[in-house]
Structure formats: structure tokens, C-alpha cells
Design a protein that fits this description.
Blueprint (H helix, E strand, L loop, with lengths): L1 E4 L3 E6 L5 E7 L16 E4 L25 E2 L10 E7 L3 E7 L1 E2 L9 E10 L2 E10 L10 E2 L1 E7 L5 E4 L12 E4 L10 E4 L4 E5 L4 E6 L5 E7 L12 E7 L1 E2 L6 E12 H11 L7 E3 L8 E3 L12 E4 L6 E3 L5 E2 L5 E10 L3 E8 L7 E3 L13 E6 L3 E10 L9 E8 L5 E9 L10
Antiparallel strand pairs: 1-2, 2-3, 4-12, 5-8, 6-7, 7-9, 9-10, 10-21, 11-20, 12-19, 13-14, 13-16, 15-18, 15-29, 16-17, 17-21, 18-19, 22-33, 23-25, 24-33, 25-32, 26-32, 27-31, 27-33, 28-30, 28-32
């Protein structure tokens, strides 16, 4: 174990489990909140990509987990083989660990990648940064998959899953209890939309652990086993994770930062409110990465991203898809797309997804009553010039009568046929002179 202690929190990572977090407690109680029943629990890094199933030559895949595909995780694999720490530093203020993860569904197969984590304590919070560095021989650009950023597992006393579900974020509107003690819910995990970017697992006194990932609106969470009791080596466990859909190239370096918040529900939410601007409109500038965008029926030029996303057009339903987000139409009447198109087409389409009853609910991640399809998106055509020159296109979304209220996602529907596009930026603020991305 390697420890940090600031008098309020005590954090421990296990160097025999890839440096994943196996201990987090308030110093005043000394009660560990983190579950370590098997190698798939803890608080740890976990990533997903293709192919599905992923079975390298000579490897053995667990039938139960083969649908996960490529899935390196920080602690070890489902056969109890441990990930290997290759570097560790602890100066009393910051913990650093680097490991070679294991492929969870396979039997003793290390990932062709490295994981790195940095942890420090700040009051009642853990400030964390995580990095994936891929070195895969398979150079295929697989479709984006939902990632766990990170996976968080708590012990039995922290069973109550709470977040904000609604279309009035950052207004102190009522939170929602998604899983409670006697409601029969918890597993299958619930999937839900939370525009305040946080979720929490709480005990009977509404005190526990929150996770906050700025800009993440998609979450999974729940509870498995008997609610209310159990320690780190017992099976009952709470689970939560903020998520983005990400394309993980064979050579990508992917970094994310998150915060763990320990305290009462109000303290957890107040911390998020103190860090998040409620007035900011979505803005994506593709200068060095994809900004959590992914693709439907197309690919780009791969990693690294330099000066825009270079995407090929193709079938009629090819599209660039934004991350789940939130904005109100009345505050964002116009969309600005800075791009260069090389195509014979004269127009493209922006599709806008509205907040609907599906977003307002929580849904089982598998089995019966899974999340239904969202309401149809608003389609807004706009003119383009296919001469390859970079232009800022101003699209008047407010001209569409259905564009009002809360919105959650954008799609850029590409024109069919041969062509290539370089997308520098998408957002609700016009790029200023000299801004390319």
C-alpha cells in the first residue's frame, strides 16, 4: 500500500493491484468506503474498444465477459492475475503510479498499453488525473465506446445512488434518488443523464462519496447484493461511473481528470457548484484532440489530432456526434462551424437532440425495459462550399420552430458521396479573427 493523509481523508492505493484505489476513508471515522471483493472493483481505470470479442492468438477468453471486447483494467483480470506496477512515487503530497494493466476478459494477458495516475488530497476531496498510453499492434480505428472515467465501487453501507436528473441544472433543483434501500433497484446498473456532471453513493444518513467529471453527462450506477452492510472483501457493492464515448486509437494518449468528494449530499453538490459555470455554452475546438466527439459510419485520419478533425464522407447516414451536453436554445440561437469541405455536395445538416422524457429517467443497462430511443432530432440543413477553403459557417438554429427549451446533443450529418472535411471547431460563439480551432 501507498498512502496519503491530510488529516481529513486517508487514501490508499494497492501497488499489487496496479495502483488502483482500495482505501478511502474520513480520518475521523477510519471506515473504508472502497470495495475490493475481486479485481473488477476498487476505484480504477478501465477502457473499452474493438474488436468484440477480443481474442489474440493463443489467448483464452472468459465466455461470460467476451462481449466486452478489448478491455484493459488497472487491477487485474477476471482470472485473478494482477496488473504490474512499473513506477511509483509518493512525496507525501502527490501519489504517482504507472502500470501495465491486464485484459479483464482474458486469462493472464497484459494490455498493449500503460496506465498512469496522479492523486493528491485537497480538503475533503481527491484530485485525480489518469492517462492511457496505447501501443497496440492492431491499427484499426474502431468505433467509439462508452468508457468508465473512472469505475468506482463502494462497500455495502453506501447503497443510495443520487444525482440530479432534469433540465434545470445548477439551479438547486431537487436531486433524484435512483437506487434506495428497499426499492428493488440497483442491478442491472442504471444508466442516466446528469447535466450537473456528478453522482454520489450515500449511506442511510445521506453521507458518502461523490464523483465529479467536468462536462460528463452520461452515467452508470447502482448496487448489487444486500444493501446497508458489508466490508471491502464482501460481495455487496455500490457502483458509479461518469462516462464519455471515446475512440481509442492504437497509439492514443488519452488523459482525463476527475474529483472524488467525501461528505454529505449537500457538501458534494456544493463542491460541484463552486467549480462549474452554469452559464457556459458548449464549445469544442479540435486543435489537439476530438473533444469527446465520435463518429457514425465514418473515420478520421487518426491520432494525433492536429488542427482539426479530418473526416471522410461516405454513406448517407455518416455523422460526427457530439458528447452528451446541455444548453438552452434561447441562449444559443446560432451555431458556428469552422470547417473546410472538399465535396461536390452543396449542403450538409445539423441535427439537434432535445431533452426528453428518456433523458429525464433512469434505465436498466441490460435486460428488460432498457433505455428506449430518444425523440427524433431536429434537422437543420445549411449550405456549404466544397472548394476546400476554411470558412466559419453561421447556422441560424432559431429559425426552426422546434428549436426551443433544453438541448442535449449535436450531430453533423455529412453529405453522401466522396469527400473530405476538416472540422476546426463547433460552438455557440463565433470564432474570433485568428482563431482556427
Amino acid at each position: 500500500m501507498s498512502w496519503l493523509d491530510n488529516g481529513r481523508l486517508r487514501l490508499g492505493i494497492d501497488l499489487s493491484l496496479g495502483g488502483s484505489i482500495t482505501w478511502l476513508a474520513e480520518v475521523r471515522t477510519g471506515q473504508n468506503m472502497i470495495n475490493s471483493y475481486d479485481r473488477g472493483r476498487q476505484i480504477q481505470m478501465s477502457f473499452y474498444s474493438g474488436p468484440v470479442p477480443f481474442v489474440p492468438q493463443g489467448a483464452t477468453v472468459s465466455p461470460h465477459w467476451k462481449s466486452l471486447g478489448w478491455n484493459p483494467i488497472q487491477s487485474g483480470d477476471c482470472h485473478a492475475h494482477r496488473s504490474r506496477v512499473v513506477e511509483h512515487r509518493n512525496d507525501g503530497q502527490t501519489l504517482y503510479v504507472r502500470c501495465v494493466p491486464m485484459q479483464w476478459p482474458l486469462n493472464n494477458v497484459p494490455g498493449e498499453c500503460e496506465f498512469e495516475c496522479w492523486f493528491r488530497l485537497d480538503g475533503a476531496t481527491v484530485q485525480a488525473r489518469s492517462r492511457l498510453t496505447n501501443r497496440r499492434e492492431d491499427r484499426t480505428q474502431y468505433a467509439g465506446r462508452l468508457q468508465e472515467l473512472p469505475a468506482v465501487y463502494t462497500n455495502g453501507p453506501w447503497y443510495k445512488l443520487v444525482s440530479y436528473l432534469g433540465d434545470k441544472p445548477f439551479t438547486a433543483a431537487a436531486t433524484t434518488v435512483l437506487v434506495d434501500r428497499d426499492d428493488g433497484k440497483g442491478r442491472p446498473w442504471r444508466q442516466f443523464y446528469s447535466p450537473e456532471h456528478w453522482a454520489a453513493l450515500l449511506d442511510k444518513d445521506d453521507r458518502g462519496l461523490g464523483v465529479y467529471l467536468p462536462d460528463a453527462c452520461e452515467f452508470h450506477g447502482g448496487f448489487a447484493g444486500k444493501k446497508g452492510a458489508g466490508g471491502s472483501k464482501d460481495n455487496p457493492n455500490g457502483y458509479m461511473t461518469p462516462r464519455h464515448v471515446e475512440i481509442l486509437d492504437h497509439n492514443i494518449t488519452y488523459t482525463y481528470e476527475y474529483t472524488l468528494i467525501v461528505g454529505a449530499l449537500k457538501e458534494i453538490r456544493d463542491y460541484v457548484y463552486s467549480r462549474q459555470s452554469k452559464d457556459a455554452l458548449p464549445e469544442w475546438r479540435f486543435t489537439a484532440d476530438r473533444q469527446h466527439w465520435h463518429y457514425r459510419n465514418t473515420t478520421d485520419d487518426g491520432w494525433p489530432v492536429r488542427d482539426g478533425l479530418v473526416v471522410t464522407s461516405g454513406p448517407r447516414d455518416a455523422a460526427l456526434v457530439s458528447p452528451k451536453t446541455f444548453w438552452r436554445a434561447e441562449r444559443a440561437p446560432k451555431l458556428y462551424v469552422r470547417a473546410a469541405f472538399e465535396t461536390d455536395a452543396a449542403s450538409a445538416v445539423i441535427a439537434v437532440q432535445r431533452f426528453d422524457s428518456v433523458d429525464a429517467g433512469d434505465w436498466p443497462a441490460w435486460g428488460e425495459n432498457k433505455r428506449p430511443k430518444s425523440d427524433p432530432a431536429i434537422h437543420i440543413p445549411f449550405n456549404i462550399q466544397g472548394d476546400g477553403k476554411t470558412r466559419t459557417l453561421e447556422i441560424d438554429l432559431s429559425a426552426n420552430k422546434d428549436y426551443h427549451g433544453a438541448m442535449t446533443r449535436l450531430l453533423l450529418l455529412l453529405p453522401p458521396g466522396k469527400g473530405k472535411m476538416r472540422i476546426h471547431s463547433v460552438g455557440f460563439r463565433a470564432p474570433q479573427p485568428g482563431e482556427n480551432g
